[in-house]
Amino acid sequence: MKFTVQQIAEYLHGSVDGDPGVEVNTFCKIEEGQQGGLTFLANPKYEHYLYETKASAALVNESFKPSQEIKLTLIRVPDAYAALASLMQLANSFTQKQESGVDKLAFVDPSVKLPEDCYMGAFAYIGKNVQIAKGCRIYPHAYIGDNAKIGENCIIYPHVTIYHDCEIGNRCIIHAGSVIGADGFGFAPEADGYHKIPQLGNAVLEDDVEIGANTCIDRAAMGSTKIGKGTKLDNLIQVAHNCTVGQHTVMAAQVGMAGSSHVGDWCMFGGQVGLSGHIKIGNKVSLAGQTGIMSDIEDGSQLLGSPGMPVREAFRSIAMMKRLPEMSKRLDKLEKLIEKLSSK
C-alpha cells in the first residue's frame, strides 16, 4: 500500500519539511534506504546517514536541527521511535493474516467452552476446565494445562507451555517455546539427598504482558509468581519461584531472577543482569548489561558492574582496571627502593 507523507503526518499529528506529496510504500533502515522507503532517526549517532540515504522520507524528532542540506522529506514528530512503532503496528494490522477456527487435530477437553472467534492450530492441547476468552489465537503444539485462565485477545505461539492453574491477562503475547508455571527450584537438603518441596502456587501474567521466546517463569511454592501489567520480557529470561515484576518493566535477554526477588515498576534491565534471591529492586531502576545485584536497590538508581555500583563509580573502576599492570610495576619498583633505603 502507498501513503503520502502528508497522510502519515496527519495520522501522527506531525508536520512536514519538504514535499508533502511524496509517496512511501515500505519501511527501511536509514543506512539501507531505498526509493519509496520511510526511515527514521532517533539516535544522533546515525545522523550522518540522513544526508546520504536514498529513502524518500524520514521520521525525526521535532527538536532535530540538520547540520547539512537534506534531500529527502522529513516528518517531524514529538518522538520518532514511538511514531515508527505506531506506524508499524498500523501496517501490520493491514497485512497480518487473521487465522480462525479450531483445527481438527487440536485437542480440547469437553469441559472447555471456546468462544466462536478463537483460533486453535493443529496439535494444540487444552486441558480440563480451562477458561479462554474471546479473540485468542493459540498456535500449533501449544499446551494449556488444567484450570488455566487465558484473557481476551491473547496470542500463544507454537510450543508454548502454560501449566495448570496459571493465569494470563488480556492482550498478552507469549512467544514460541516459553514455559509459564513450571516448578520452582525448591529442594530441602537432608542426610540422604535433596527432597523436593512441592510447588503449590501458580504464575500470573497481568494485562498487556509480552514474553519472549524460550523464557521461563516458574510457579510459586505458595501464592503466585507475578508479572505486572505492560511488562515486556525478552528471550531466554529466567524468573524463579515467588518473584514479582512490577508494571511496565523491560528486561533484555538472559536476565536471571533468583527466588523471591522483587522488581518495581518502570525498570530497565540490560542483557544478562543477575539478581540474587530475597532482594527488592525499587521503581525506575536502570541496570546495565551483566550487572550483578546482591542487595536491595533504591528507587531511581542507575547501576553498572558486578557487584552493581553507581554508573560513574563503575566507569572509574573500569578505567582503574586498565592501569593495574602499570601500577603493579611501579609498586614493585617502590618496594625494591624501600628495601635498599632500609638496608642503609
TrEMBL record:
HAMAP family, per database record: LpxD
Annotated keywords: Acyltransferase, Lipid A biosynthesis, Lipid biosynthesis, Lipid metabolism, Repeat, Transferase
Sequence similarity: Belongs to the transferase hexapeptide repeat family. LpxD subfamily.
InterPro entries: Hexapep, LpxD, Trimer_LpxA-like_sf, UDP_GlcNAc_AcTrfase_non-rep
Listed SUPFAM superfamilies: Trimeric LpxA-like enzymes (SSF51161)
Gene3D superfamilies, sorted: Hexapeptide repeat proteins, MurE/MurF, N-terminal domain
Domain UDP-3-O-[3-hydroxymyristoyl] glucosamine N-acyltransferase non-repeat region: 22-90
Catalytic residues, chain numbering: 241
Organism phylogeny: Bacteria, Pseudomonadati, Bacteroidota, Bacteroidia, Bacteroidales
Pathway it works in: Bacterial outer membrane biogenesis; LPS lipid A biosynthesis
Name used for this protein in its record: UDP-3-O-acylglucosamine N-acyltransferase
Oligomeric and partner information: Homotrimer.
A single GO molecular function term of this UniProt record: UDP-3-O-[(3R)-3-hydroxyacyl]-glucosamine N-acyltransferase activity
Xref: PANTHER family: UDP-3-O-ACYLGLUCOSAMINE N-ACYLTRANSFERASE, UDP-3-O-ACYLGLUCOSAMINE N-ACYLTRANSFERASE 1, MITOCHONDRIAL-RELATED
Record field: catalytic activity: a UDP-3-O-[(3R)-3-hydroxyacyl]-alpha-D-glucosamine + a (3R)-hydroxyacyl-[ACP] = a UDP-2-N,3-O-bis[(3R)-3-hydroxyacyl]-alpha-D-glucosamine + holo-[ACP] + H(+)
This protein's encoding gene: lpxD
Its EC number(s): 2.3.1.191
Purpose of the protein: Catalyzes the N-acylation of UDP-3-O-acylglucosamine using 3-hydroxyacyl-ACP as the acyl donor. Is involved in the biosynthesis of lipid A, a phosphorylated glycolipid that anchors the lipopolysaccharide to the outer membrane of the cell.
Organism: Falsiporphyromonas endometrii
